[in-house]
Structures are given as C-alpha cells and as structure tokens.
Amino acid sequence: MKVYSWIRGSLALLAVTAWTAGGASHDAGSIAHAASLSDAGRTYNAKEASLRAYGLAGKVIVIDAGHGGRDSGARGVDNIHEKEITLAVAKRLTSYLQEAGATVVTTRLTDTDLSTDEDRRNRRRHLGDLRGRLSVVRNQPIDAFISIHCNAAPAPDWHGAQVLYLKDNDHAKQLATIMQQTFQDTLLPTKRSIQSNETLYLLKRIEGPSVLAEIGFITNPNEASWLQRPAYQEKVALAMYVALHRYYDEVSSGKVPEEDPED
Asked: On the chain, which terminus has fewer CB atoms closer than 10 Å, C or N?
C-alpha cells in the first residue's frame, strides 16, 4: 500500500529531525540507530503525504493525556512534569488521527483533571479523575483507547518506552505488541517488551484495543531531554499513529502479530 511508504518515510524523516536537533551528544548506538532510519527514509515520496490512512477513517479513538491540573504525575530531571509531556504528545497524536479521518475523543486538552469539587472535598480527587476519564470513554461507542504516560524510577539509568495492556484482553495485547515493536524501531533504544497488568483502573474497564503507553523515563537525563523536544514528541505521536494503523490493517486482514515475551 502506498500509505505504508509514506509512513515509513515519515518515521525516518522524523527520526533524523529528532536525533539531530539541539546539538546534544549521543552514544554510538543511538547514532547508528538514527542512521539506519535515515537510510529507510530515502524512499519517501512527498505526494504520498496527502493520502488518507483508510484503515483509520471512521474509527472513534480516545486519546487520554495522563495526569493534569493538581496532579503533575511523575517529576523528573530538572523538575519536569509528566503532565506536560503527555499533553503535548496527545495533541500531536490527535492531529495525525484526525488527518487520517478518525474521530478523536480526548479526555483533556488543557492542564486540568477530571475530578469534581465534591471529589476534592471528599479527598478522592484521584479516583474522581479516573472516573471522569472513564465517563468520557463511555459517552459513545469507541474503537480504541490510548492512555499516554511517562515513566519514572529511583535510578537514573532506567530507560525505554513500554506498552501495558490488561491481561486476557487479546485485542489490547495485539495492539500493545504492534506499538511496542514500533517504539523499538523508531524511538530511543529500548529492550523493553509489552507488560500485562491486572490492576490499572481504566484498562480494567475499557474493552477492546486499550493500552497504556509509557513513552519514556523522565528520570533518565537523556530520555528526559528528548521527551521535552517538540521534534521527538512528534516522533512519539507518529509512532503511536503508525501502530494504530498497523493494528487495524492486521485486524482487517485476519493476521495475528508475533507475540513479544512478557516481563
């Protein structure tokens, strides 16, 4: 399909933009990773950028920017707030999906949470926020749900994007597998694989292809630096867009992706 040539080319071009912007230093593995993506992008055809991704046209997709308002989420290097990174990426992903003809529902587009005054008075702001996000999802039938988060760890050397899904949700596992592979191919180097979960509030209550994407560690100095850059945020958004397109293409063709080993 011509759209895949555009997708591959776009990812490669964004890879070069993100990896070379800002004059930051990189290790040899990172530079080699960027160079391989650059080579792949030489087949890019500008005319194909106008093609619509018909596999996504008409789909209703919920994009959830994690945290917001009083809830900053994790705090990373130089006091980076998770809520700011997730919102920036969510807005970019929303634009890609809308260009592809999808109907996008967002849980937030500003620095706010979804708890109510009553929730806050009763000291259940966090639960109220989660319930508010679930209410947004349940306002209409949906085809997919993506919750965007950043990771954090006590040790600064922890790194890598990772996709979580609800155990025993086969649709979610299929999407998570595709998205994790796309992250490995296009984002900062990671050896992480998909991870099943049985406790996440939203994933437990949303059926179908619903995943939580941890797009990197803001406690890792190198990853935190990249996650703050618009070019890299664009690249993360495009990777998720490509994963969704690949998922619906595989579903329509009856293909089942190879399963990654779980943690």
From this structure: C
pTM, 2 dp: 0.80
Measured CA to CA, the distance from residue 234 to residue 102 in angstroms comes to 18
> How do the domains of the chain map onto residue ranges?
54-253
Q: How crowded is the C-beta side of 263, counted as CA atoms within 13 Å?
A: 12
Query: Do 162 and 195 contact (CB within 8 A), yes or no?
Result: yes
What pLDDT score does 119 carry?
Answer: 86
Dihedral sign (CA 147, 179, 26, 94)? negative
How is domain 54-253 classified at the CATH fold level?
Aminopeptidase (3.40.630)
Q: What is the 3-state secondary structure (H, E, C) of the chain?
A: CHHHHHHHHHHHHHHHHHHHHHHCCCCHHHHHHHHHHHHHHHHCCHHHHHCCCCCCCCCEEEEEECCECCECCCECHHHCEHHHHHHHHHHHHHHHHHHCCCEEEECCCCCCCCCCHHHHHCCCHHHHHHHHHHHHHHCCCCCEEEEEEEECCCCCCCCCCEEEEECCCHHHHHHHHHHHHHHHHHCCCCCCCCEEECCCHHHHHCCCCEEEEEEEECCCHHHHHHHCCHHHHHHHHHHHHHHHHHHHHHHHHCCCCCCCCCC
- Are residues 64 and 200 in contact, defined by beta-carbon separation less than 8 angstroms? no
Beta bridge partners of 151: 217
At residue 86's C-alpha, the angle toward residues 84 and 92, to 5°, is 105
Closest to 46 measured CA to CA, from 99, 102, 5, 95: 5
148-170 pLDDT per residue, tens: 999 999 999 999 999 999 999 99
| Closest to 257 (Cα-Cα) out of 181, 159, 158, 183 | 181
